[in-house]
Structures are given as C-alpha cells and as structure tokens.
Amino acid sequence: MDKYKKLATNTIIFAIGTFSSKILSFLLMPYVTGKLMPEDYSTADLIQQTANVLIPIVFLQINSAALRFALDKNENKSDVFTIGVRTTLKGFLAFLIFYYPVTLIKINDMALGDYAPLLYLFVLVSGMRQLCQQFVRGCGQVRIFAIDGIIATATTLLFNLLFLGPLNMGVTGYVLAIIASDFMSVAFLFVATKLWNDLHFHKVNKKTKIDMLKYSVPLMPTIILWWIINVSDRYMVTGFIGSAENGLYTAASKIPNFVVMFSSIFIDAWQLSAVDEYDSEDKADFFTKVFRVYSGGIFAVSSALILGCQLITKILVKPNYYESWQFVPILIIATTLSCLVNFLASVYMAEKKSVMALVTAMSGALTNIVLNLILIPNVGAIGAAIATVIAFAVVFIFRGANTKKYIAINFNTPLLIAEVAILAVQCIVMIRLKSGAMMYGIESALVLAMLLVNIKPIKELANKIFGRFLKKSK
C-alpha cells in the first residue's frame, strides 16, 4: 500500500475510535461541573493526574516497549506481551509497599491520601489497559483498537451518568467511572484479540526482556518529566493559591484538549508509518511533508480555538467556572507546541533513542519548575500557563536541533515563527480587549491569515492522498 494512503487509512481508523472518546470529555464538562464544585473538581482531577504519573513509575513504562517491539517483525509477539504483563504485576506488588505513606499525602486544603484505595485501583486497571492497547496497536490490529475507543466512550458516559447522577458519589464517582470503563476495555481487548494466547508461563527470550527494559526504563522518567510540564502547575497552583483557583485552571486546561484531540488521532497512525518508512531512501522528504501538513493543521485549529474560546467556555462549563476562559488562549499555545514536540518523538521511537527523549524532556521540565516557582506567587495561575508555553518551546528547539542527526526534517523556521507570532498576538488581543466588535474583528483577521499561510501544503498532501483514492475509484 502507498505510504500516504496507508497513513490516511490508519488516521481515519484511529479517528473513528479516538474522536468519540476525546469529544466526550468536552461534552461531559457541563454535567461534571454541574455536579462538582470547583474544589471537588480539582480533587478529582488531581487524583487522576497523580495516577497518570505513577503508572510509568510503577510499571517502568513497559506499555511503550510493548508497542515498539510489537512493531518489529522479527520479535516474538507472545514474549513481548508476556514480559509486559509480568512487569505490570510485579510493579504493582512493589507499589503496595508504599500504601501507608500514600495515605498521608496532603496538598494545602486537599487530603489526597484519603483516596488512596481509589488511587491504587486506578493505577492497576489503567496501567493494564495501556499495556493491552499498545500491544494490540503494535500488532497492527488498528480496527480493534478503534472499536475499543468507541466502547470506552460509551462506558465512560454511562458510568459518569450513574455515579454522579442517581448514586451522587461525587469525587469518588468521577474517578470510579474512569476505572470501571478501563476495566471494561481490558476485558474487551482480551476477548476480541484472544490475548490469552500471547500470555504464557514458560521462560521468555532474555534478550527481548533486556532490550524492552533498556527501551522502556529511560521513558519512565521521560513521562514523569512530561507530567511535570503538563500537570505539576496544578499542584503548585493548589499549593500557592488553593483548590478553588486550581479548579478554574483545570477547567481551562480541558479546552485546549481540542487541539490534542486532532493531534493524537494523527500521531497514533503516524507512529506506525514512521517506523515502517524509516529505512526508506526518501524518508527525509516524507517526514518533512507530513510535518508541514501536520503543523499547519495544528496551528489552524489552535487559531480558530482561540477565537472561539470564550463561547466554548460558556457552553462547556457552569457560570461559576466561566472566568477560567482567561487561561485558555495561553494554554492553547502551550498545547500547540506540545503537539509539535510529540511529532519529533516519532524520530526517537523509530531510532529507539529513548535516552535522548529523556534528556530533551528534562530541559523542559526544569524550565517549567523554575518558572512556576517564580511566576505563580507573583502573577497567579496565569503564570503557570506562561511557564508551560516556554517549557514546550525549549523542548521543541532542543529536539529540532538534535533530531537532525538522524533525519533532516525541513521545519521552515521563518514560517513556524510567524505562526507562533499569530497565536501570541491573538492571545494578547483577547486578554487585553476581553470582548467587543474590535476584538472579534482582529481575531477573525488573524485566523484568516493563519489559514492562508497553511492552505497550500494541506492541499498538496490532500491531493497526494485522496487523488490516489479518486483515481482508483474511476
């Protein structure tokens, strides 16, 4: 199959499975924010984010190794999955040793330790789901992966409606809905792909085990560093200002996920193509063309999202959360840069250079921590958003320079700078003017400018992909 057609086909399949689950998180916001006060929403989110950072530590980020090694045609798939499951179970048993210290954790006015049982259950079930998902995807069963996304969407919706509605379980219900949905996902993947056939109890290939751990262990701190850049500001906002302010900041951080939604659909498919085509002679040209279209699409979506962020905030959250819109434009810029960074991660994945992924992520994490400590006490939660933007900019510059050793991607730097500048001007205009015909006039003109500078490469790749489909249909 032609590489562009294959990328398009996989993107469509992943879109079917991913779009519904991503869009659900936005559609549920009015319901969730109506059932939970800002401080409760903050607590529920911090439980989820704490679990997300614990998963790579407890399980040594083995799910990433399961994906990468399942993609290798010469690897024994059964050994890959068995190593993944054994590492997951051993990691959880080791994690149980720390149960009592976890129960003592308290951040300002929030007693995280009170939810320790829920946190442990979340880590185990979600970690197992991630392992099964990535292994299935690496084995090329993208349709099953997509169906799982649809099922997860349905179960998340049903459990949220049940636990927050009739049962009125509050914070516990919000988190338990995610756990229950993840459990259903694991059950589906096991049955649909007969994963038990890839799970055995005899010895695994020692070299495969060592190679998988060599790949996954450096990714463990890398994921933590990404968490520091993406989420640690919520802990700092809670610590410096309080749960109520963090509840607003957390609500604001959900809206830029529209950008992540479009990005993640593509990146899931792109990772498969990046590995498949990495040894081809024209890989630099392939990566450059795809990056140009991907980045153009991300910038266009981000620009439009800034224009509509006040309206979206009004629709998605209850009135007592509306002031959170002021954080949204800056967080959209941060999210845009994070999407560009994720594209470059595909180079490290194809090269199996997980150590460099760690080093580059560390530069951003250190930048983020230092700037959070300086900005949050002085300018409030908006300082956390600014720190996140700068942190992702540092990582992108570092990775852009470093990945040229492996593949010469032409980033078209002047255009990238212009695109970031357009978003920055949009951000300043909206925060300064806040409302009015002048603000919306300037914002609309800037969105149009963003579309005009990106329309050519998007049309070119669309012709490459869909032109082939049209020719074959004649």
Task: Give a brief description.
The chain is mostly helical and 474 residues long. Helix content is 82%, strand content 0%. Helix 3 packs across helix 12 (243-254).
Structure in words:
The chain is mainly alpha-helical and 474 residues long. The protein is built from 19 helices and no strands. It has helices spanning 3-27, 29-35, 38-58, 62-71, 77-95, 99-103, 116-138, 142-164, 170-193, 206-230, 232-240, 243-254, 257-276, 283-316, 328-351, 354-379, 381-402, 413-433, 437-473. The model is unreliable at 469-474 (pLDDT under 50).
Order of helices and strands: HHHHHHHHHHHHHHHHHHH
Question: What is the overall pLDDT average?
Answer: 81
Strand content: under 5%
Instruction: Based on Cα principal axes, name the global outline.
Output: globular
Rounded to the nearest angstrom, the distance between the terminal CA atoms is 18 Å
Number of helices: 19
Give the tally of β-strands: 0
**Structural class label:** mainly alpha
Question: How large is the radius of gyration?
Answer: 22 Å
Percentage of helical residues? over 70%
Main sheet summary = none
Low-confidence stretches: 469-474
